[in-house]
Amino acid sequence: MCQLAANERTLDRCPPGTGGRIVRVDSEAALQQRLLELGFVPGTTVSVVKLASLGDPLEVLIRGYHLSLRKREARTVVVTSS
Amino acid sequence: MSSPPANGRAEERKSGSNNDRSDTTVSPASAAPVAVASALPLFRSSAPPLVALVGNPNSGKSTVFNALTGLRQKIANYAGVTVDKKEGRCLLNGGGEVTMLDLPGAYSLTSRSPDEDVVRDVLLGLRSDTPRPEAVIVVVDASNLERNLYLVTQVIDLGLPTIVALNMMDMAIAHGRPVEARKLQRKLGVPVVPIVARKSEGLDRLRAQLNPLPPSPQATVPLPRPLEDEASALAAQIEQRVGASDALSRALALRMLVSDGAAEAARSRWNLDWTNELDQARTRIRAAGCDLTSAEATTRYQWIHEVCRETVASPDQQRLTTTEKLDRVLTHRVFGPIIFLVLMTFVFQALFTWASVPMDAIDGGLKWLGAQLATALPAGALRSLLVDGVLGGAGAVFVFLPQILILFLFLAILDDSGYLARAAFMMDKLMSTVGLHGRSFIPLMSSFACAIPGIMATRTIENKRDRFLTILIAPLMSCSARLPVYTLMIGAFIPNKKVGPFTLPALTMLSMYLVGLAAAMAVGWLFRRTLFRGRPAPFLLELPPYRPPILRNVFISMWERGREFVTRAGTVILAISIVLWFLAAYPQRAPQPGESATTAVAEQRKQSFAGRLGHLIEPVVQPLGFDWKMGIGLIASFAAREVLVSTMATIYNVGEADAQSVGLREALRNERYPDGRPVYTPLVAISVMVFFVLACQCMSTVAVVRRETNSWQWPAFMVAYMTALAYIGSLVVFQVGRALGWG
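^ Those are the sequences you sent over. The predicted structure of the assembly is below.
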C-alpha cells in the first residue's frame, strides 16, 4: 500500500458524518475494478454514513446511493481529509 | 452446418426447432458456427423477437419484467451454469408480441459473477443456448442515475437497438432530483422512457418503443486513445474471422481486452484463440500509459458525471430522504439488531400458527381422498400402493407448502422493501467471524424454510469459496421438513409446561434451531480454516432505498418457490415414498393361524426389507438411544426427513402420516423393549431431534448441491460430514444425558 500524504486518509478512518474526495483506490485489481465500476473514481466525493452495530461493515454514501463495505475494503480507498 | 458445434446440446436444439431463427451462419473465413448475425435480414422469422431486459440490481428490473409479462413466464436454466433463465411473453399494443428475456441484475459487463457472465455473454451473442437478443431494454433507477448509467453506456456500445426505461421517476422527483428525459435521450442517442413500474406508469410508451424497434445506436463514450486503437484493430480481425457487425466487433474486442472471462467465452464459442493477440494488445496499451483496470471506468464516469450535471436537477437543499430517516432507527447500532430479532421472532411465530390451518386442510383433504379410494378399490396391492404409498407421499409434499409460502411471503416482502440488504449489513460482522459473508445470510435464512431454494440463492455470492462454504452449511439450518419430526417428538414427549411467558415445547423447538445455527457456525469456522483458506471475497452490498413491497412481485416469488418445491423436491419425495412402501410391504408374509391382526402387522414389518435393514443397523444406532424401528425410520428419512413421520406411522400401523396425530404419539409413548423399559423417553426424543438437526437427510438437497457445484464430490462430502456430525451429536446428547440420570 502506498504512503499517505499529510492531507490524506483511508475511508475506514473517516468517522461517521465525514468523508472526502477519492484520491485513489489501492486494492488488488479485481476489487479495484469493482469499486471503480461502482463509482469510486478519483475525484468523487464519498462520505461515511454509519458503522454497523459491531463496528464493521460501514455504510457510505457515494454518487447519491448507499453502499456497505467492510473496513478491509474501505482501507484501500484513499480520500482527502476535508 | 459442417463444423463441430461448440456444444452438442445446442446443436441438437437448433437443428430440432430453431433453424428458421437463423442465429447461426458460417462465415467464409472460418468454419465455426456464429451467433452474431442479427444484422442479417433473415432474422425476421415467425418466432417473436427476443428482447433482453437488463439493469442494475435494485433498479426495479423484475418489477418491469413482471409488469410487462404478467404470469406468462417460464423459468429454465442456462446450460452449464446455474443461473435462472427467465423468459416471458410481452404483448405489444399493435397486436404483435416479443419474447422478453429477464437477464440477471448486473452493475457492469466486466463480469465478476456467473450472473454477470450470463448477461455479458447473452448480449454479445456468445452463448450457444441463447440467440443474441434483437433489442435491449435497460432499466435504470432515476433516483440513482449516475451509477445506473454506467451499465447503460456499456450496453449502448454493443450496437443493439437499446431503450432506456427510466424507472422510479416518482422517487427522483420526491428527492428533488428529477431527470430531464429528453435531454438524457439526446445525450445517450437512444430512446429514454420515464416509467414508474410499481404503479404501471409509462409501460405503454415503453411497449410502443418495441414496435418498430429503434435504430442501432452509436457508441457514446470515447475511451482513451490506446484502448480505442487496440479495440479497433482487434475488432477488424473479429469482423473478418466470425463475420460480426461493426458495433458488435468493437464491443467484443473491448470486452475481451478488459476481461479474461469474455475472451474465454469467445474462445469456447467459436473455437478461436486470441490469447496471443490479447496479450500483445494489453502490453501495448499499458506501454502507452493507459491502465486497463481503471481506464474504462474512469472515462465513462467522467462522461456520465457531465451528462448528469446537465440532465438531473440539483435539489435546492439537501433533504433527508425517507430511507435515511428510516435507517436512523432500522440500522441503528442498538435498535437495529433488536428490531431485526423481533421481526424474525414474528416470522417464526407466524410460520407455526398461520401455517397450521392450511396444513390441516391439506391433510384432511388427502385423508378424505384416501378414504374414497379405500372404498372404491378392492383390497390388494394396488389399493395399498395408492393409499399408503402415493397419497402418503403426496401428503408429505403438499403439507409443507403453506410454510414455504408463508416464509417466502415474508422474505419477498423483506427483500422487495430493501430490508433484507440491511439485515445482511447488520449480520455481516457476526457472519464474518465464522468466515462467512453478509450475503450468505440471505441463503442461510432461506434455508430455514428449505435448503433447496437457499442453496440456489447462493448464486448471488460472487466468490466461489464463499459460495461453496455457504452451500455446505446451508442444510444445517433447520428447514421446514424437520418440523414434522420436531412436532412429533415434542408433542409426544416434551411436557406442555409454562416457562415464563413461553412454553417448554416452544423453547425446545427454538433450541433445535439454535443447535443447527451453532453447528453451522462451528463448521463454517472450521472449513474456512481448512478447506477454504484464503482471503475472503470483498463485501460490497448496496443498501437500496426502502420501498413499499409490490404485491405482484411478492405473489410471483411465492408462486415460483412453491412450484419449485413441488416439482423438484416433491417428485423425489413421492418416488421415495413408493419405494418405502414397497420395502415395508414386501416380501409379503402369510398370517399364521391363531395370531391377532396387530401381531400379523408387526410381524410383517419385522420381516419386510425395511425391517431387516432396521435390525441390521440397530447395533450402530443403539448408543444413540434408538431401537430398530427408529433404525428403519433413519434409513427411510435419508431420502427426506419428513418421511420419518409417515414411516413411523406405517411401522406402528397407526395408518396415517401426520405429526400431530394422537395415535402415533400414543404408539410411541407405549412402545416398550422386551424388558418393559419404554423405548422413548424425553432424552431419546431430544437425541432423535438432534440427529435430525445435523444429518443431511434429503435427497433433493443432495441433487441440488450436485447441480450447483457441478460435481458429485461436494454433495458426497456434505452427506459424509453431516452424518458424522449427527451421529456424534446424538451420541453425546444420549450418553451424557443418561450419565446425568435424565433418561
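The CA atoms of residues 94 and 218 of chain B lie 28 Å apart. The first strand of chain B starts at residue 25 and ends at 26.

Shout if you want it in another format.
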